Amino acid sequence: MQRLRDLALEVLNEYQLLSEEFGSYQKTSGLACVVGCGACCNNPQIEASVLEMLPLALHLFDVGQADNYLHQMHDSGGFACHLFKRHSLDGLKGVCTVYEWRPGICRMFGVAGYRTKTDLPTLSVCSTIKASKPNKYADALITMSTSTPPMLTHGRQRIAKIDYSMGEKLMPINQALVAALEKVLTQAAYGALDDGNVAA
Ligand code: SF4
Ligand code: SF4
What we know:
By secondary structure, the protein is mainly α. The protein is 50% helix and 10% strand. The model is unreliable at 195-200 (pLDDT under 50). Residues 41, 46, 81, 83-84, 96, 98, 102-103, 106, 173 line the site of one iron/sulfur cluster.
């Protein structure tokens, strides 16, 4: 499964760029996440592609945890992202347990640009950031014409084009991780993980 490893490397390179672009906009606009917040992770409907979860699935395989995660996920209720560790009973505070390997959407969600139906660029900001930094949000809207935010759709397209067969279809994040783990484990079971063979 050298091909999966090559794809994962490309995805991680793109992640690095996306994190820099979206992080830089968050910093300059003053619209960074609220410290300790994990509200958006407390939701199993976050959508990711199998490709987005591939680097994490390979990492879990490499550290001998792929089977373990797969079993846990088949047994879990799926009330939140399986990778989220709650720090409060309501699930609004917490941390990502796989921060380095988190999918693309988690690097772009929070503050991102999008286009309206009439194709005008506008700003999408999560309700927690909006509520905690209303003045910064207002400033960012005012300066949209001179400081355009990075576009979520473009980010998604850049990841998807690395491999459309795994990157185009979006599904709930836990389901995407299960599919990525199954792909990795299936190829490993057929001995194609590190022998350079390319499986579909
Ligand atoms: S992968 Fe991490 S950052 Fe993304 S939703 Fe899950 S816990 Fe949150
Ligand atoms: S994007 Fe919003 S909800 Fe998610 S962690 Fe940041 S502040 Fe919290």
